[in-house]
């Protein structure tokens, strides 16, 4: 049976979460003896989506998303439908599942097939525990960003079927009022490979400069925990965590961050390095390596050492 992916398209661009979902969909579909199919609404470039594609020319963003997903679902009859856990996709996923009476698993970080049904690993109680949910087919899965590798879903596109709203039989939808862009941001921390993140342990706004210098020598960007953003030391767009952004890059340097569950929910980088004066700080549980040290003492040494290695 096939596995359907709902592509996240913003301003006519396929977002990275889509490729993560496609990679997983391909794996699940091969286990189920089917194929991955990606539904793309709008006219973005689909040439890197490594699956079959159904592309519906309905503008971006489209007022007909709900109806389109239903019609495409009826055509494909997939065993599973994968959405990204973004505000736009979650909105469509929940309405779609409710209207069709399908089981839905949210905050999903893993999906497998066992004895003919799906098992979704999902975050519960604010990240304190992970639960395995048995989900009957056809099931709807809303997957957290950073759970799968985007690279696995990139490659040559398969067949591309272009459909109009008329061909799909979609004639009504909700009214599209407008697209509200988030605050203009200088950098998008969710797309950065190297993130130097500061927590309350940095002590003072003036010390953010140290993190900025470290980020500069490493070629990264500066982010922060919620208290840093709430204090106005960094803009909201730099917040990592449940009510901020998820970072998925190669390196996350946590400077004076305790590692509260709401914070680490947003840390999906491949390598986490933590510096904290408290050897029992929870951040060390997710750190690949760390130093029990004062950030104000260690960071200047780190900067000098990196400059020395780079020959600066
Ligand atoms: C609904 C909800 C949503 C939330 N969303 C988010 C979110 O999106 N992102 C987020 O970050 N938080 C979020 N929080 C807040 C979260 O619970 C924590 O309060 C917050 O993450 C703590 O930030 P912190 O680690 O910087 O500060 P603290 O918890 O105060 O930790 C400071 C750390 O610095 C260490 N330290 C102190 N001095 C030094 C020094 N000189 N050198 C080295 N280490 C030092 C201390 O040992 C400590 O571990 C949310 C909370 C709720 C209830």
TrEMBL record:
Domain named Electron transfer flavoprotein alpha/beta-subunit N-terminal: residues: 3-172
Gene Ontology terms, MF aspect: electron transfer activity; flavin adenine dinucleotide binding
Residues passing through the membrane, by range: none
GO BP: any one term: fatty acid beta-oxidation using acyl-CoA dehydrogenase
Pfam families cross-referenced by the UniProt entry: ETF (PF01012), ETF_alpha (PF00766)
PANTHER family: ELECTRON TRANSFER FLAVOPROTEIN ALPHA, ELECTRON TRANSFER FLAVOPROTEIN SUBUNIT ALPHA, MITOCHONDRIAL
Family: Belongs to the ETF alpha-subunit/FixB family.
Protein's UniProt name: Electron transfer flavoprotein alpha subunit
UniProt lineage: Archaea, Methanobacteriati, Methanobacteriota, Archaeoglobi, Archaeoglobales
